């Protein structure tokens, strides 16, 4: 248990290695948190939910941190105003690392000295804490990408070892369609499954699913470019009403991080964690909102899958893909072109894990019979079940060990700064 | 067909009868439209979707009205900015009535002179236009109620003929629970049903529904008061995250239109279309948002039904209830106390039709296989399927002839100015 | 005294004669008040500051009106939120006229029955109330103009009897310059002047004024058009920093109410109280902000006068000009072309009274030794001496009997909906 | 000239010495700039206005810096959005110091190699650049104070060497009044004065000044506390209208940085650059807005001086006081208690230089005959002459060599984060 703890904690530090100290401080929009906040908050989680509960007479490392680094747990007390996380310079990065070290030391002591009965109580919370930290590892990456995109210098987080060339249109075949029969299916995590999962993935329950087909690959940049060139961002009839008003208010003309080099008619580029790069056509399209995903699907004569369809179609696929921990090996945190093979890639539904989170058309809501975890940790998932949409499959920013077929990620329909793409579905 | 047209149009005029001319002009918030806008827009609907399509060489009554009175149909051209509907004094109310009369005359001519083939084409659009007008009749009432609530004079729209007395707590028994078995059910409107329905009620489709129980009556003011007195508006753990931030931002402490007479501790009052009235405890609670309905249900150890559950439970109930057209007879557009009997009221699930729209926990989304109507009228429902929640059953502001068990009303989760209440459900 | 009261009150009613009832209700922006609010507030002023003070045991006409129709007198109690004046339909226009009639009756009784000593006390307040009402008469006109401009129908308040033709560029000669010597001058109202004036015009005090020249006529539409055509709205160097950011935020490209007929390159038009009209080049330019006046002056190689310069130059001019009460005779409330002669027009500084308020470069501030009126009426002028600029000379919307050479009008530098223009000055 | 350049540049670095790297990055409100921005912008000023003009074929250090570090000079090209200065992490602090070093090297080369004629041209711009940098030294201090105040840790910039004790009320005598005769005076900088001054201090011109009295010391914390305790922040009649609405909107109850220790009734504290400290009663009050200064003066039965009065009264005082460069010696950048003597402190008007900028009631406007500097540098002062008020005398954050009696500082009336206080005046 301690080894796993150390490994996850170490990976967080490893993700920070390319950063300059200044990069840790900035909050480029309300949804983004500064890196140093992520570092502190993930430590706070262990302190608040494990050390304080299991160490008798526990004294917090710093009383002020309880306020500063609580994200949204009302049950754990008041919180610093979220959009103001970037307005404070202190504690410094070094002080935050000190905080991490203090927590690590105390956690080490607790885990080494606790009796078995206590360890049994700690274990689920520790596992949760590690998955929580893995979620923030991904947020750290998407957030720093947004921070970097805010500077005209367009700095790079890391270099891509392996630089795929841009492809001309037509390099990727039309997607194939994989069919599924109608029927009553069970989805969600079975009650006897002891591997880690969030409360929102339970209980396993029956759904009637009509016959449907799912595309055998995600939508690519090349596909999406055809939508843009067909006037996709100028045709109100393709969009949800809220999407159209968002597009107009924020002047959307392409996915986040896309731009054209030079004036009218320049080459299509995208900002990546390796800086500005030419757009690669057979990469899964990324950084699109639910609104854009939905409009693209309508334009393509298809629709987004619902989350049950996605789960049914993908749960037998091998957990292979382009993940942050695998990616770290190949040196890029970015969707991989479809033309690049991934070891162990088999099955009918390519690339459903890793690369990009795939928007579903399912509003994020409680499964029938859902019960949030008891106590303050019940705030983890349940209270966000409103005005958000479910995404599935993990991304190039997720750790492989963090993703499951039943995993329900969720974001507001206008969110674009995550590694979010889509896969088409249609009625059979 | 013409008779039905005349009847609906006349009922709109009848609803306006208590209004002073000034009341027609005001828009008290962005969601509210001025009465004169409703009068004009409902006429525009016939002009734009029937007269312009079926009268060769049709000349609009006033070119500017095409812009001013188009609500949100991008396919029908640009629109006046919605929140600015109350910023214009012209056209005057008289000019808007002239417009209505012009449209009535032209519609009369068209319907009298058209051949049968054309009439067959017109019929579905006309029926739609009438249901559209009925929707706006209800909005007209909820909007004028909001306008009136904005004046410290708290003016009355009409007097209640029949004034029920306030009841002490405990006058209403705890709700009973009606059970339903698990199974695969069909919901939505069958393909062969020729009676009017919106596109969003189709297609009829199968759903697996787990066993559940539904309360046999709506939540009352007395029930809801107990929630308030138990600190319901101060306990974050009862609320969705978005609900809690809305409550804090807008300083919610009770349903819209409730207030206390005098300083701390005065009698509970509510603003109604008959002016300020003492709170009647056995009336269905009204003017609560989805957030409040959800928090109440959590506090009560229950939940909101989903829309399929509601439809299954209520579709066999008789279409009886307290509606705007029946209400007009009894002289009140306001929920009726449960202690007052309604003619023909039978069945296990009391008061599911009329009184208050009942929030379900279902996000408003497309039924499997849903296809919007073709053309511009496809904008009627489909493009709003995002960040809204479904309500069922009609209200004291709806016309009885407008409501069906399959009817899907929808509003944003923070909306409170509609006649919205709730009924509890729970897992069996 | 009563006759004067009746005359002013009657003129208010006369100004309302062209209005439809709906026009009384609308507030088209926060700075604008609905006509019915003006009608009620001017009556409230007599009620609150005369009737309540001088009638023993006075009972207000309607307690709620004390709140609704108090503008900004904190000493007189709390106030209805200013930007919400247009959100209420009640009291109706008829009820407001009833209120006016009640006040008139009570004022009549008071004035007829009071003894001489009381009348002496009432007199200055009554005179103030009448000048207050005259101020609101002008606001009523500028506000209804703004309301009308908000409707695409561009309705007319009245027809111009006498329609001057548009003139070609060059029809007006360059302005002549009238010189004034340096010296110590006295400005403001002398202590022994018993005619009406506001507190802010006192005390008379000495100013050292350097030698200067003042243009012998106001800037015209033709002059201003040359500024526009020379890129005036695109050249940052001509503008104050706040002006430039306002221009960009609100996309200013020309004075308020100017527009071009049809697409790029159409004829220059302006919206007037007689509806849309071709731009007349030798009219004094109107509806420009301080920012625009200042930028124009800089472009023209001149500057705005300061208020002492203006007063020195104009105080010996005859009080002749194009005013609302004279205008009513000639049938237009609009600046008059310079080519049209005004009876009695003499002197070196043409058209300094009437037509348009002339922006000075003087920030609105207290004269040395200034003391606000005692009590609540001290809030009338003094508390606004911040971030506003002084205008002089009255306009086509002012009554002739209301204007003096020492009169200090003031508005925020971004305000454009008043009848505001300018006259150039330069150092000698 | 080079020595002076080096001294000013070195003092900037010295001011940064107490900062952690993270402190350089944060922008805690739109008016505040990050320290690293100040460091870069002051360098940009030399690059843009000296190196680029006087070095043939000059290549900028980094093209992007021209955009990022231009503050508001439209004549020098477009600018990065001011409120976004804290949203970028790159260039890093080290890169900004590299930039400074590059500019220093290039400036050194230019100054060493230029011929005398060129040096004569450079000299005034260099002097301007140094005074510009001194202005930003003060802003750097006020901005970092605001940044530090945003963290609940309330970090200290430096320790005060010399810690004065809090004084009880009454320790400071009532101010004495120094009288001045009426007359025509000359103010501003004479044409033949070759020492440095800004364009806005010219031309010297005549003013008629009525007899007045000026307090012989600034208002203290003790004085101001009496105002608070007398309900100063709850009495609308003491405030300008804009001030009152600002007070209500931002919930002002005391000067910026004041707070009470613990709940209701705790000790009065203030946040300083040495962290949280007990309020010292005989210190000049600091961090009050124009609105607060004006309200205090009204409460005290006095008024603010106008800027001519201030200049007349103080121009013969010795340039002694508590400045940032002297303060650095005594170890505190904070107003000094009146009970502490300052070397060389003589004269009738104590402490008019240093400690706190003193609000005058003069709106910031052009002196008669004012001409902005030619070219882009004309944007330095002139374009801000709107909706700001003049402050005089320098502060504990200013360098002594930067301050003059004729110096006109200016800020918006709601600004509180500068070292701003007041001194009373009254009519004789």
From TrEMBL, chains A, B, C, D:
Every Sulfatase-modifying factor enzyme-like domain range: 174-318, 353-426
Keyword Oxidoreductase set for record: yes
Keywords from the named record: Iron, Oxidoreductase
Residue ranges of every copy of the DinB-like domain listed in the record: 5-138
Keyword check for Oxidoreductase: yes
Recorded metabolic or biological pathway in which this protein acts: Amino-acid biosynthesis; ergothioneine biosynthesis
Organism domain of life: Bacteria
Pfam families in the record: DinB_2, FGE-sulfatase
InterPro entries xrefs: CTDL_fold, DinB-like, DinB/YfiT-like, EgtB, Sulfatase_Mod_Factor_Kinase, SUMF_dom, SUMF_sf
PANTHER family: HERCYNINE OXYGENASE, SULFATASE MODIFYING FACTOR 1, 2
NCBIfam families documented for this protein: egtB_TIGR03440 (TIGR03440)
Protein name listed in UniProt: Ergothioneine biosynthesis protein EgtB
Source organism of this protein record: Natronomicrosphaera hydrolytica
């Amino acid at each position: 248990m301690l080894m796993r703890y150390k490994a996850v904690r170490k990976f967080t530090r490893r993700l920070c290695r390319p950063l300059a100290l200044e990069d840790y401080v900035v909050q480029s929009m309300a949804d983004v948190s500064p890196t140093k906040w992520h570092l502190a908050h993930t430590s706070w989680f262990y302190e608040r939910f494990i050390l304080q509960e299991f160490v008798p007479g526990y004294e917090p490392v710093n009383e002020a941190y309880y306020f500063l680094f609580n994200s949204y747990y009302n049950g754990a007390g008041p919180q610093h105003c979220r959009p103001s996380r970037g307005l404070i310079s202190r504690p410094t990065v070094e002080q935050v690392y000190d905080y991490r070290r203090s927590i690590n030391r105390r956690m080490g002591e607790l885990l080494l000295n606790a009796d078995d009965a206590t360890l049994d109580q700690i274990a689920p919370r520790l596992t949760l804490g590690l998955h929580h930290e893995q979620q923030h590892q991904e947020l750290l990456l998407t957030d720093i990408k947004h921070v970097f995109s805010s500077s005209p210098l367009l700095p790079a987080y890391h270099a891509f070892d392996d630089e795929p060339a841009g492809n001309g249109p037509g390099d990727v075949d039309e997607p194939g369609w994989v069919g599924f029969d109608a029927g009553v299916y069970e989805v969600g995590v079975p009650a006897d499954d002891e591997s880690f999962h969030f409360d929102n993935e339970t209980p396993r329950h029956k759904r009637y699913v009509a016959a449907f087909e799912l595309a055998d690959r995600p939508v690519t940049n090349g596909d999406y470019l055809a939508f843009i060139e067909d006037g996709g961002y100028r045709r109100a009839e393709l969009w949800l009403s809220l999407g159209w008003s968002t597009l107009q208010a924020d002047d959307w003309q392409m996915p986040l991080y896309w731009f054209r080099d030079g004036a009218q008619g320049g080459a299509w580029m995208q900002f990546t964690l390796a800086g500005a790069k030419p757009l690669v056509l057979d990469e899964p399209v990324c950084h699109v909102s639910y609104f854009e995903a939905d409009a693209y699907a309508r334009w393509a004569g298809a629709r987004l899958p619902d989350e049950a369809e996605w789960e049914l179609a993908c749960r037998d696929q091998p957990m292979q893909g382009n993940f942050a921990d695998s990616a770290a090996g190949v040196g890029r945190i970015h969707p991989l072109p479809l033309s690049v093979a991934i070891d162990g890639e088999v099955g009918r539904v390519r690339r459903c894990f890793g690369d990009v989170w795939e928007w579903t058309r399912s509003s994020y809501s409680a499964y029938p019979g859902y019960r949030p975890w008891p106590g303050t940790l019940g705030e983890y998932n349940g209270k966000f079940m409103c005005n958000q949409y479910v995404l599935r499959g993990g991304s190039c920013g997720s750790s492989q060990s963090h993703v499951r077929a039943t995993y329900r990620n969720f974001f507001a329909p206008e969110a674009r700064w995550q590694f979010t793409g889509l896969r088409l579905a249609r009625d059979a």
